Structures are given as structure tokens and as C-alpha cells.
């Protein structure tokens, strides 16, 4: 695993020294090696975390003809087969890396090369013959890739992380008000947006080409194209046949991701996803698998009991660590790795389990993605139920329910009936136009009008404020599916790629650990989306197919336990260990200096939260992170 950066200049602004400064910003992504290519005002650079071919995998490296140069972050798991095909065509290889295979695939097939890759990747290739820069991101969006096309001189700059791009001369740090609004609404910033107006994310499954001062971005893969319209409803699949296909895909995907020349292990939460990965690894390995888990002192948050059950069943070398509630220093430390605000509470346990794993291994397999492709979230049940009651006749009842539940004090537990019913009643108040996202929105229109400052509200995007969710294309494509598969597609294209995968990438890379995600092999994704909706949500049973398939392999107490999620008791900590941090970063001075928000409303939320009248943890935490991010990126005085 690596970090990459580079530029294509039509006007000279940067030199080799600039490239080195950019590359040093991402040293945590690749502490083992660094490399540079600079010619004709094109610069490519890489930081390398050595995983395969430890001695000869130096980057950037050239193609067979030396007319194409590549810098690359990721792992392509089918590279041995691709290499054999190229060798049959006469290509000679100097290394054993997948990197050299990729650049020669480009030489052979041009931009169509990307369709042959199976893995996770962010790629930059300079084509000297055609004076072309090519950037590509993997099918799912596991690896990040940012770019900036400077107005005026049209110099193109790219990198794995924003902090690297900001080291290029003259990059504007103007904050995008639309991105701020999206962050406060969703707790993450969806592609193609970034927190900065000039910097954009290359979407998953897309390839960018830049030549003759013209930029073109094209989609090369999407699961709605691969699966086809309504195909799952037109046949009656045999469950046993599907189960065997699933087992074969799981074993194949895990086996591919166990290829490494360094120590390897697995994250183990004790949920069905990570437990299934460990099951497959144990069956493929001649040695004991190393597994890693994080626990909490608050028993309703800790899942160590379940991870221990799986560790004993599959005889793993199991390492655990408890996350202590005194996390102020950890918050401030991790702020350096958030190039843009990300409100996911599970940043912290993800970092600590990564740090624990990195003490013993360099690569881990993770169970991320199972919820988004097999239907694991409770809001899918809420969505199903809402379809029966979301009619004009019932809307006065919705409002009454919201008013009544608003009076209930929040529970100290991670979940519970009160917390669930409050979240459901809040969700029903959101617009039915974006009905799926009602369960994922943390700030309503009314709250925004009260929270946002007059200056912020007057920006072109927020005037008038209409809570636009920029997912029109995804809504359109979701119609290719039926029932709950539509909702799964929306989460797969938004929340998973721009929240879950960003979190895993940032927190694992902060410890120089490579995280691989077998359930997000694009062939597994295509299989999952081909399943009928009732195989995802059977009655009120989430992940119905996955759970049935794992019966007899995993204990029932693992398969059918209530989903808890990988989170921390931050709503409680904001009243204790994190209270001082909250009061500091949401102080009147900081809020007014930033100019985005109304401090009186923030103080109202703080008081309600501290007095246990309402649970504002999500909103308060997002505001804390935004102001902390501003400070770290040099905006605060």
C-alpha cells in the first residue's frame, strides 16, 4: 500500500522540490520507500508500504517500452494472470509487482486497461507519447484519489490526500459552503465534493484523462450496469445453488487478499461479517490467524465477548485492547489525519484496532461492506415500515409522535427502544422525496436555518436553503433495482464509499497498516445485488441470505445477535471526558471567528445535552470536528 501524488503543468509553478514536499505529506501511507519521476513539467511521486516484492517494487516505474510511467496505491489481486497474458504477448518484466503489470496493461490496451483489474487502487499514469495524464480509481472506491484543475493556467494536481495537494503553489483554500452543508447534514462529504472549492474527489469506478488542456472523466463500472434491470425478480433462484456460489466467492476473495510477503491478520468485531472472513481465512491458512479487537468499559458498547467466541472457535491468536474514555489527546492527534471533517464516531476504535494490529502485522482483512451489499442496517427495516405509514392521512400522527418522543430523555445505552423510536420519528419528518436518506440525516432544514449564521445562509448555494442531496443520478440508477435493493444501492454509492471506506483508509494508513476488504470484491458486490430483495430483508430479519448461508458455520449467537455497530459512547463522554474539549471548540469566540454558525443555538444544544434533555451528540460532535479541522488547516487565529 502506498500514497501517491503528482502534477501535469502547462505553466511552470512547481519543481522537483515541490514534488518532494508534497510526497512527504503522506509519509505515513508509505514509510518504507519513496520515489520520483520528473520530466517535461510532469511530476509523479510515491510513498511505499512494502507488501509484495519487497526488494524491487520501487515506484514510479516505467512500462516495457519506457514510454509510460506509473505511480500507484493499492493491490490488484489478479495480477499473476494478467502478467501471464502480457508475457505471452512478448512483454518483459523487471519486477514481480502488480505495479509493473498495470502500466504494461495500459501500454497494451490504453484506458481500457482499468476494466481488467480486480482489487483496490488509485492510479496515476503519464503517457509520454500522447502527452496524457491518466488517473483511475477502483470499482468500489476503496482507495482515495483527489485532484485539482487550477483555473487560469489549467495545471492539474492530484494526490491520495488533500494535504499533499495543498503543498502545490497557489492552491486556493476557499471552503466550499455546499460541502460544509453536506457535512453537517450527513456527517461526511460525498464525492465529487471536498471541503475545498477547487479540490475534487474522483468518484469510484471512474477514470480521468487529461491532455491538450482538456479534462475528461468517464465511468467504467457501476453495479447497476453489471446486474441489469430487475433481473433478480425474473427468476426463482435456488437457495442452495446461491449459497454455494457465495461460499466460492467468499473463499476466492479471501484467498486473493491473503497474498502478501509480510505478516497478515484480521479485524474481528464478533459480527457476522468479520467472523465470516476469519472462518474463510482459517480454512485457507496452514498457520493460526492473528485477530484483533477493541473493547469498551461501557458494557453496552463492548463486543469482546463475541470476538472471543469466534477466536476460540477458529483457534486464532487473538489480541484485544480496551478503549479508555480519556481520549482528548487521541482526538487532537487524529485531527492531523482528517484532511476534511468526518463525523463518524468509529474513527477512534478503528484507529486503535489498527494500531494494535500494526504491532504484529502489516496487512489485515476487514469485514467492511457486508451491511451495504447484504442489507444489515436497521434503517432498512424502518424504510420498509415507513412505506406502509407514509401517507397524507398519517402525517399528523407522525408529527404528534415526534413531539411526544422529543419529551423522552435520551438513554445512556448504545441503543434501546427509546433511542430507536426517537430516531424513527425524527426520520419521518424529512422530505419523502429523499425518503431513503431520512434515516441518515442529522440536521433538518429548520435546524439549519437556526444554526447557520446570516452570512453563511446568504451564500449562493444556501439561498434558498432546500436541503438538496446531490444524489440525483444515484436515485435514477437505483430504479434499476427493486425493493430494498434500491436503498442498498444508495448506501453503497454514498455512505459506504465516502464515510466507511474513508474512515478505514485514513485510520489504518495513520498506522501504516494495509486494510483489505474481501466482501467488497466487485464480483461479490455483483452477486449480492443480483439477489432478490426478500433475500436481504426477510420479514424483519436483516441480512437474511447471509445469515442463512452461515448457519452451521458460525454460532447462532453470532449470526442472530442484535446489530450494535462499531461505535463509542461519545454521547456520554461529551458530558464527562470530552466536555472540556467541547466547551473549548464550541466557545463563543471560536464560533464567531469562524463565522459559519449561530453560537446561541449551539449553546442551546450543549445545555440540552449536558442536562440530559436531548441527545445532540451527532450534531455537537460534527461541529467540534469542523472547528478543530479549521484550526489544524490554519484558518483559526
What would you note in describing this structure?
The protein is of the alpha+beta class. It has 28 helices and 19 strands. It has a six-stranded antiparallel sheet. Strands 4-5-6-7-11-12 form a six-stranded antiparallel sheet, covered by helices on one side. It has a five-stranded parallel sheet with strand order 15-14-13-16-17, with helices on both faces. β11 (about 205-210) and β12 form a beta hairpin. The chain starts with a strand and ends in a 5-residue tail after the last helix. The mean pLDDT is about 85.
How far apart lie the N and C ends?
Answer: 36 Å
| Oligomeric organization of the protein chains | single chain
Q: For the CA atoms, what is the radius of gyration?
A: 24 Å
Secondary structure tally, helices:
28
Taken as a percent bin, the fraction of beta residues is 15-25%
Number of beta-strand segments: 19
Main beta-sheet annotation: 6 strands, antiparallel
Q: How many domain modules?
A: 3
Flag low-confidence runs. none
Task: State the CATH architecture of the largest domain.
Answer: 4-Layer Sandwich
Quick take:
41% of the residues lie in helices and 15% in strands. It is built from 28 helices and 19 strands.
List the keywords.
6-stranded antiparallel beta sheet; single chain; globular; Glutamine Phosphoribosylpyrophosphate, subunit 1, domain 1
Q: Topology, please?
A:
Elements: E1 2-8, H1 16-24, E2 33-39, E3 42-48, E4 61-62, E5 68-76, H2 79-88, H3 98-109, E6 119-127, E7 132-137, E8 146-149, E9 156-159, H4 162-165, H5 177-186, E10 199-201, E11 206-211, E12 214-219, H6 223-227, H7 239-257, E13 264-267, H8 272-284, E14 290-296, H9 304-313, E15 317-323, H10 328-334, H11 347-358, E16 363-365, H12 370-374, H13 378-389, H14 395-406, H15 417-428, H16 445-451, H17 454-457, H18 472-478, H19 484-493, H20 495-509, E17 514-516, H21 522-530, E18 537-538, E19 541-542, H22 544-550, H23 556-559, H24 570-573, H25 579-585, H26 588-594, H27 599-610, H28 617-632
Parallel strand pairs: 13-14, 13-16, 14-15, 16-17
Antiparallel strand pairs: 1-3, 1-9, 2-3, 4-5, 5-6, 6-7, 7-11, 8-9, 8-10, 11-12, 18-19
Helix pairs in contact: 2-3, 7-8, 11-20, 14-15, 18-19, 19-20
Amino acid at each position: 500500500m502506498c500514497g501517491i501524488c503528482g502534477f501535469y503543468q502547462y505553466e511552470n509553478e512547481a519543481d522537483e522540490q515541490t514534488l518532494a514536499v508534497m510526497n512527504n505529506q503522506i509519509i505515513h501511507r508509505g514509510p518504507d520507500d519513496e520515489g520520483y519521476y520528473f520530466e517535461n513539467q510532469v511530476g509523479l511521486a510515491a510513498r511505499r508500504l512494502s507488501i509484495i516484492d519487497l526488494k524491487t517494487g520501487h515506484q514510479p516505474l516505467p512500462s516495457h517500452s519506457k514510454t509510460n510511467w506509473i505511480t500507484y496505491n493499492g493491490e490488484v489481486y489478479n495480477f499473476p494472470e494478467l502478467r501471464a497474458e502480457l508475457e505471452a504477448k512478448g512483454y518483459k518484466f523487471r519486477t514481480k509487482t502488480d505495479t509493473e503489470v498495470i502500466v504494461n496493461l495500459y501500454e497494451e490496451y490504453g484506458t481500457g486497461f482499468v476494466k481488467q483489474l480486480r482489487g483496490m487502487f488509485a492510479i496515476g499514469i503519464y503517457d509520454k507519447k500522447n502527452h496524457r495524464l491518466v488517473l483511475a480509481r477502483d470499482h468500489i472506491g476503496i482507495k482515495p484519489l483527489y485532484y485539482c484543475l487550477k483555473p487560469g493556467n489549467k495545471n492539474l494536481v492530484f494526490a491520495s490526500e488533500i494535504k499533499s495537494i495543498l503543498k502545490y503553489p497557489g492552491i486556493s483554500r476557499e471552503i466550499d459552503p455546499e460541502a460544509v452543508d453536506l457535512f453537517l447534514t450527513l456527517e461526511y462529504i460525498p464525492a465529487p465534493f471536498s471541503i475545498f472549492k477547487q479540490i475534487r474527489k474522483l468518484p469510484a469506478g471512474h477514470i480521468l484523462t487529461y491532455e491538450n488542456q482538456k479534462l475528461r472523466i468517464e465511468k467504467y463500472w457501476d453495479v447497476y450496469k453489471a446486474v441489469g434491470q430487475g433481473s433478480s425478480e425474473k427468476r426463482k433462484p435456488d437457495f442452495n445453488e446461491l449459497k454455494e456460489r457465495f461460499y466460492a466467492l467468499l473463499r476466492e476473495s479471501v484467498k486473493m487478499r491473503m497474498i502478501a510477503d509480510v505478516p497478515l491478520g484480521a479485524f474481528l468485531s464478533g459480527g457476522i461479517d468479520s467472523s465470516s472472513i476469519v472462518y474463510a481465512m482459517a480454512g485457507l491458512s496452514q498457520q493460526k490467524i492473528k485477530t484483533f479487537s477493541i473493547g469498551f468499559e461501557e458494557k453496552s458498547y463492548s463486543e469482546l465477548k463475541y470476538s472471543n467466541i469466534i477466536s476460540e472457535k477458529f483457534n486464532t491468536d487473538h489480541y484485544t485492547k480496551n478503549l479508555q474514555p480519556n481520549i482528548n489527546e487521541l482526538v487532537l492527534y487524529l485531527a492531523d489525519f482528517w484532511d476534511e471533517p468526518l463525523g463518524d464516531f468509529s474513527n477512534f476504535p478503528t484507529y486503535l484496532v489498527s494500531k494494535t494490529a500494526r504491532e504484529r502485522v502489516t496487512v489485515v482483512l476487514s469485514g467492511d461492506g457486508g451491511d451495504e451489499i447484504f442489507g444489515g442496517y436497521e434503517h432498512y427495516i424502518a424504510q420498509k415500515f415507513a412505506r406502509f405509514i407514509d401517507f397524507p392521512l398519517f402525517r399528523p400522527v407522525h408529527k404528534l409522535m415526534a413531539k411526544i418522543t422529543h419529551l423522552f430523555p435520551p438513554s445512556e445505552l448504545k441503543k434501546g427502544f427509546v433511542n430507536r423510536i426517537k430516531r424513527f420519528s425524527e426520520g419521518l419528518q424529512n422530505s419523502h422525496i429523499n425518503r431513503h436518506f431520512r434515516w441518515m440525516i442529522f440536521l433538518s432544514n429548520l435546524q439549519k436555518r437556526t444554526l447557520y449564521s446570516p452570512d453563511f445562509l446568504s451564500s449562493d448555494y444556501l439561498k434558498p436553503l432546500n436541503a438538496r442531496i446531490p444524489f440525483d443520478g444515484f436515485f435514477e440508477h437505483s430504479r434499476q433495482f427493486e425493493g430494498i435493493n434500491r436503498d442498498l444501492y444508495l448506501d453503497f454509492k454514498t455512505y459506504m464509499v465516502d464515510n466507511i471506506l474513508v474512515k478505514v483508509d485514513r485510520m489504518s494508513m495513520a498506522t501504516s497498516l494495509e486494510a483489505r476488504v474481501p466482501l467488497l470484491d466487485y464480483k461479490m458486490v455483483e452477486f449480492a445485488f443480483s439477489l432478490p430483495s426478500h433475500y436481504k430483508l426477510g420479514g424483519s430479519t436483516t441480512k437474511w441470505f447471509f445469515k442463512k448461508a452461515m448457519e452451521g458455520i458460525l454460532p447462532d449467537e453470532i449470526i442472530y445477535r442484535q446489530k450494535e455497530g462499531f461505535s463509542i459512547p461519545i454521547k456520554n463522554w461529551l458530558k464527562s471526558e470530552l466536555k472540556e474539549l467541547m466547551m473549548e471548540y464550541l466557545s463563543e469566540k471560536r464560533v464567531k471567528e469562524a463565522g459559519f454558525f449561530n453560537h446561541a443555538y449551539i449553546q442551546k444544544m450543549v445545555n440540552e445535552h449536558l442536562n440530559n434533555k436531548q441527545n445532540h451528540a451527532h450534531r455537537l460532535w460534527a461541529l467540534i470536528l469542523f472547528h478543530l479541522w479549521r484550526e489544524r488547516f490554519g484558518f483559526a487565529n
